[in-house]
Automatic annotation (TrEMBL):
Residues 14-238 form the Ubiquitin-like modifier-activating enzyme Atg7 N-terminal domain. It comes from the Eukaryota. InterPro entries: Atg7_N (IPR032197), Atg7_N_1 (IPR042522). This is Unnamed protein product. It comes from Candida boidinii.
Amino acid sequence: MTTSESQLKTSAPKSFVDSSFFTRFSELKLNEYKLDDSLKDVHANMEFKSLGSSQAPSISLNDSSLDTLEEFESSLPIHSNFIINGHIKNVNTLEDFKKINKLEFLTNAGKFIYDSIIERTILDDPTLLSYFQLLSFSDLKKYKYYYWFCFPTLESDWTMVKQTDLIDIDPQTINDFIVSSKNPISILKTSGENIEIEPFSNLSQFPTDSDLHLLFIDTSTRESDCHYSIQNLLTALAIYD
């Protein structure tokens, strides 16, 4: 690494779990899940519309997070959130929660992202790069809930060589594309002064030796770091190179 190169700094999101999530989870635990501790689908939202200054990235869960994707999406304000899909594993005792191997749990979550890259499913659904897993234990008698989020970050050899001025593009054009695609990553195709936004799924149409501009919606507004999933994006690009 030369003196002009540096590692890109990233940060994991803060998690905000509404109390309604646990109310809903208690119902499912009693009536449906019972002693089943297998992975279950869970949804979270990542707001991009109204971010404060110097704000770390965050994800939020509510009582619809354990419902279908369509039901969860309908519970959110329109055109203001990316939806992130993950899995929750609820164990049956506090002892199980404490003794579970967190590193192995994190590694398995990272493997899910890696497999999604290898299988190229991230091209159609870039939010898979923000995949998370949630480990939990619910003491329903005492109304106590224990949980631990993991946000896997894959490593690559990419370094930041330089920062340049932003490409001059109409913000409304970006906003319209985000609203229609519901994805935080897209491709900027430039031809002279003309700039077009294309879906990330078109990545395979670009030769690996061509200049490529990607649009990454960073929900971290801190100048010191970016949303952690950009590292997973860079890993994907390194694998596809």
